[in-house]
Automatic annotation (TrEMBL):
Annotated ranges, domain Yippee: 1-81
Family: Belongs to the yippee family.
Name of the featured protein: Protein yippee-like
PANTHER family cross-referenced by the UniProt entry: PROTEIN YIPPEE-LIKE CG15309-RELATED
Amino acid sequence: MMSRAFNGQHGRAYLFDGVVNVIEGEPNDRPMTTGKHTVRDIYCCRCGTTLGWKYDKAYEASQKYKEGKYILERHLLVDVQ
Ligand SMILES: [Zn+2]
């Protein structure tokens, strides 16, 4: 499931193919160091904590592999350690 490590806003973050028990927010365009992306914030369905985001769309060809995947920074990662 975990395919790659990233540096997220709060340190190391991980890219997942799918996550459970989350609520997805509305899509919005966000400029990132790797180019423009359309992303949705994702929240824990139990406590509402922001967990990371989902990539709806990547505009740079080199970033297309992220589409439909999720970045998790904290919280759920703690549960599985
Ligand atoms: Zn929670």
